[in-house]
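User: Structure tokens for this complex, please. No commentary.
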Amino acid sequence: MEVKPKSACDTCAHFNAAGLKKLGVDTSSFDHVIALAGNPNTGKSTVFNALTGLRQHTGNWPGKTVTRAEGGFEYNNEKYKLVDLPGTYSLLSTSEDEEVARNFILFGKPTVTVIVVDASRLERNLNLVLQILEITDRAVLCLNLMDEAKRNDIEINTRTLARDLGIPVVPASARYNEGIPELIQTISEVANGSIVCKPHRIKNIPKNIEKAVEDLSVEILKEYPDMPNSRWIAFRLLEGDQHIINLLRTGEFEEYIS
Amino acid sequence: MNTYDPLLALLVFLGICLLGFLFFRPNNGWFWLINKGSQSTDKIIVEDILKRLYHNENAGKYLNINDIVRTLKQNDKMVIDSIDNMATLGLVRISGDIVKLTKSGSDYALRIIRAHRLWERYLADKTGFNKTEWHQRAERKEHELSMDETNLLAHKLGNPQFDPHGDPIPTITGKMAELKGVPVSELKTHTIGRIIHIKDKPDIIYKQIMAENIHIGSIIRVVEKSPERIVFHSEGEAFKLAPIMAGNITVSILEKNISYEEDILRLNILKENEKAKIIGISKEIRGESRRRLLDLGFVKGASVSIDLLNPLGEPKAYLIKGTSIALRNDQASKILIKK
Amino acid sequence: MKQKNIDNIIALSNDLRWQIGDEFHDNLAEGIYADAAEIVKVSVHKPNGDNRLRLDAKIDKIITSKTWGFPLMFLILAVVLWLTIVGANYPSSMLAELLLNTIHPALKGYASALGLPWWLDGFLIDGVYMAVAWVIAVMLPPMAIFFPLFTLLEDFGYLPRVAFNLDHLFKLSGAHGKQALTMSMGFGCNAAGVVATRIIDSPRERLIAIITNNFSLCNGRWPTQILIATIFIGATVPASFAGIASLGAVIGVAILGICFMFLTSWALSKTVLKGEVSTFNLELPPYRPPRFWKTIYTSIIDRTLIVLWRAIVFAAPAGAVIWLISNIHIGDLSIAAWMIDSFDGFGFLFGLNGVILVAYIVAIPANEIVIPTILMLTVLVTGISGGAGAGVMFELDSANATGEILRAGGWTLLTAVNLMLFSLLHNPCSTTIYTIYKETKSVRWTVVASILPVIMGFVVTFLVAQVWRLFA
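Assistant:
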């Protein structure tokens, strides 16, 4: 992660308006699209409400938001559209929720993906974080529920965590609105390219799989040289993801990634 | 209304119920029988004969017409007519009494086998049907799937190599993954191997093996061998099998450097205030359930303890990676741990 | 060229997948968790290890204990239902006074002052307005009490523990413990109960919960049960026991509903649904103090008003239909009278009558308007004095007066018992049917969920009627 001076916006990231339209998200009149991902029960919807001022119901229940909720906010004269993805434990399975979340990040290419995690259950939450970091390199980790973590005497070194994950980490307690201004600030810095992420890539994979992923990845890059997440596409192909295979076959894939 | 009598009404009602039962009762209901009758039985007989010939020829045996008539539980005359028909279509050659597959006949047979095994795989991975139903359902479905449908199915399943019994699934071109294994009955003591195949015939033995809770993919270690019985350990349990049962289970022998975890237990026997490490999830949990457990953190090396007992005995809540997750006992009994 | 490269990629992935074998997903999941563990080791310091908060553990010990778990659960459910049913009485009667007894006559007055033709003012004010007003008056107060209470329990984290405690019972019938919650939610409103099944993430168990939710007596049906039980069941015993007897009958019907729910769940899981994928897991989240006002606000916005809006949308046309069939005449009889006549024989077989069946057909949108419709139709066909005119639904303040009208319509104790049973076992209201379709996106399951309870209702009332007549 390196911090560059805030200069002309040649480093600015852009979301994929065409892809988002296909996913049913209207992006006209917005400068940035922000996706909100996270495990169930991490207070993701509370963060969403804190950012947008909307009052979506936030249940103390795993798996509440089944469809996407959308909202928006304005910061420094720029308009941000916020899309709340279904809470999932992972992005590797075939359930509807996971497909919605996975395809949104992969094809919608939101300008920034905010990953909300429960600070006192970081290890479990990192499962999802590490998967998302394979897909996108513009992400912010929102370390939510810091108040609960403090009550549990859990100490987290956000500096080393940010270094290891390669993305900015913002501690927050969304219930009490703590850390939300900082979160907005960080989102805008990533969106405008003044923070550049160097996301962590999954390491502990058996050799034969690593080799297969690499071989496949090389082939994919031959065809789509600019693809930032060829490794993730390789994972999905090895998993036999029908959606992606079909998109490749029909050539629609191109429209999404261009 | 002048003919109304409650007793009469009740009797009419009971009559309707009885009729409904006779029509729709599972397996032998008239509705199902009529339904079955309307399917082209000819096609089914032909395909069943092809399959039987293929399996036997693979084992180096040739069948005569009598054998076929005897093993197929169908009208004798229809079977004989079908064989004649197949000869004219060039699917089989009849030399004397012996019936042999031609090239196109064996290709056809492979296609049926492919459909059957793919469907079993589909049932195992993508549906909730019990494992004892897979074979029977596939026996029916194999005759219904067209070639295109079969290929689409294979594609959707990610072109799997093996069916849930460990039998190789032929590819479109008829290629099959090779099974390099040894029957358990021929293993020496202390050999470690992974179960790669369980024969689903004869039915009686297969059901016994299923009842023993033995499944493909488990690693076993033979601890005792005598002419009367073979004892092996697998996933924390000891199994004692008669040689004919053991002969139906094939394992591939693993290299020496793989160590067999001897004192494996199952999560459901963990007691309050005990800690354990997860060794893995039994191969019996497949498809979506397996993925879900992995996603929830039930992965190799994770430490687990009981968080809450249940007033009704189950499910129990387990503390895994900092979160309390409740599992039912039949799930917990398929998670392997080491204290 | 391009297509060829892509085909190559897919072919290569097939080959590689073939080589790696079945373990890919396991290996990947393990790999990711191994990375996570390494990262956490560097950055997170936990002095207490993995243990949960002591207070959380203490609360859990009580809530899931053998001694306290179940009594506590029933106590809380009873309190919530009591608060809902009793607490809703006052605002309900105030709303009824306002909408039905004040605004309705006022509207009629304006209409005649404006010189609207009788049919237009009847259609709009007596038909559409009346049905909508009725649904609001009966439905809004209980939902505005029930849903916030339920949501508070949910936000606190108590409900997952209820699912945990009860799961074993539901497992026996092939269902998921969380169905206990969607079922309880159904006591408030079936449409809301169906939406709540989203918390069940296993496809088979979710369908079971959706299809069986209708067996929870919803708040549109509680008043029907209470009214009929008071009039007919209470009258069978000495006056001093009347209250207890009628209360017992209503609770009995609700419990019968729960029995049907278990039975149907079991049958579904063993037959039509056995091929659906079934996975189980239940996360017990930490307790979090709910933020009272915010919860109340969001649960009223999110649940109450949405459900109410749907009900109104469906009730308005029903009001129009009810008015039209009572006022359009074919020959010298209204359509309603024709329908009632032709259903009478059929209804008799089930210990019901034509009026009841017609009322249930036209009042599909909302169970709340069944009783007013029955009263209006009874007056219409018997020609006794009372009521507010053809097509104008009404209800009386005293149960005795209502009972007199019904008895004049030929009602017996058997009719009352079977009406209570049929009110429990009939198709879901159209709001719920629509919601089931939205949630399952399947015509097939929507049809099953709609038809199954009606068939069961006819079978049960039929059997009761025949046996009753044999022995009585």
